[in-house]
Specification:
With 296 residues, the protein is mainly α. Helix 7 runs antiparallel to helix 8 and helix 9 packs antiparallel against helix 10. The chain is elongated, with a radius of gyration of 40 Å.
Length: 296
């Protein structure tokens, strides 16, 4: 009996030792597995940081280019600004296509507006050449920016370079034949070289409100006057004077149209109003001469 008890005790001891060994095998891990998660975490973290840096750099690149370019001295703008513009990416490397499209559109628009505002500031300061350099560079990269195009043409006209102005206008009208501001400048150029009927055809294709653009109708009145349509011209000048009663140019145009319509007494009165201008010596001198001539 004691032998049997000893055998059972030995069996229990062996079971206990086997279970403890099994538990020890399960709970213990080889060194490879114990450090695997650490080795995976390090490269993945580095990749995430690198991707974030690249995205951030791409996102601010456009703004940095604009700031650096607009701080260039005016004398260097035309050459260097064009070079900087050519490096601006047309598409930003954003994964989502919808976000990419929206971000690009806003960025380009803001870019153009900032450049235009810089050109306008230079014009306000009297720096036409500096503004001209910016506008030329904008159009090299974005030729369809009509605000830059008509402003540049206006500068050329003020600098007595009508051929350059007309080239800028004609190129724009090829892209946008019904562009209002370019068409008005084109009509003015045609009027200056006595292509009066062609100028009037262009003007007649637009119908802005008189109060919104009186200069447009002043140009039309001048064209009608040169074509000998005195009554129509006088009527249009009269309407303009209702809006701007102190405008000496409108009074002079009104007087000339009345004189051409043989309304001498009314013409003299209009010349007298034109001669009251203290801003334009040429208008006052011409008005006084016409009054003396009409009064005999």
């Amino acid at each position: 009996m004691s032998l049997l008890n000893e055998m059972l005790n030995d069996l229990n001891v062996n079971k206990a030792q086997g279970g403890a060994a099994a538990i020890a095998m399960v709970s213990s891990k080889p060194p490879l597995f114990s450090h695997l998660s650490v080795w995976l975490f390090i490269p993945l973290s580095c990749f995430a940081v690198f991707a974030g840096i690249v995205y951030g750099i791409d996102k601010v690149r456009l703004s940095e280019q604009l700031v650096s370019v607009l701080n260039e001295p005016p004398a260097m703008l035309e050459k260097q600004y064009a070079s900087s513009l050519s490096t601006i990416p047309q598409k930003m490397p954003v994964t989502d296509a919808k976000i990419n499209k929206t971000f690009n559109a806003l960025s380009v628009k803001e870019w153009q507006e900032s450049a235009l505002n810089k050109a306008y500031d230079l014009l306000d300061q009297g720096d036409e050449d500096g503004a001209k350099g910016i506008l030329i560079s904008i159009l090299k990269q974005y030729p369809n920016v009509m605000a830059a195009r008509d402003t540049l043409a206006t500068i050329y006209l003020s600098q007595e370079e009508p051929q350059l102005a007309e080239k800028i206008i004609d190129d724009g009208l090829k892209m946008a034949p019904k562009e209002y501001s370019l068409s008005v400048i084109k009509a003015r150029l045609l009027l200056q070289r006595e292509s009066v009927q062609d100028a009037l055809v262009i003007l007649k294709s637009f119908h802005p409100r008189l109060a919104d653009d009186p200069d447009f109708y002043g140009l039309m009145a001048a064209a009608l006057q040169r074509l000998g349509r005195a009554s129509e011209s006088a009527s249009l000048y009269k309407s303009l004077l209702e809006i701007e009663p102190a405008n000496a140019q409108y009074w002079l145009g009104y007087a000339v149209s009345l004189e051409n319509a043989n309304a001498t007494r009314q013409a003299i009165a209009a010349y007298e109003r034109a001669g009251q201008s203290n801003e334009d010596l040429a208008i006052r001198t011409y008005a006084e001469e016409r009054i003396q001539s009409l009064q005999g």
